[in-house]
Write a structure and sequence with these properties.
- By secondary structure, the protein is mainly beta.
- It is built from no helices and six strands.
- The chain starts with a strand and ends in a 9-residue tail after the last strand.
- About 15% of the residues are buried.
């Protein structure tokens, strides 16, 4: 599920989630995925927004970790 799209002169940046993993894609203007990154820390990780500024890509979302350690 795609949640947000941002673009610059050469690429589209798409964020969302797939199979419970927060995912970000970098797609060139011909529609080719040039890279993809995912976070798989729990079954319910998601990115909701993306912003591109200069040489940086900022993705906003959350990672749930239900691991509990006592002591």
């Amino acid at each position: 599920v795609f949640e947000s799209i941002e673009c610059d002169e050469n690429y589209l940046y798409v964020v969302g989630y797939s199979n419970g993993n927060a995912t970000i894609l970098k797609i060139d203007l011909n529609g080719n995925v040039t890279w993809q990154k995912s976070i798989d820390a729990s079954p319910d990780d998601r990115f909701y927004a993306v912003f591109v500024g200069g040489n940086y890509i900022y993705a906003v979302g959350y990672v749930l970790n239900n691991t509990r350690k006592d002591g």
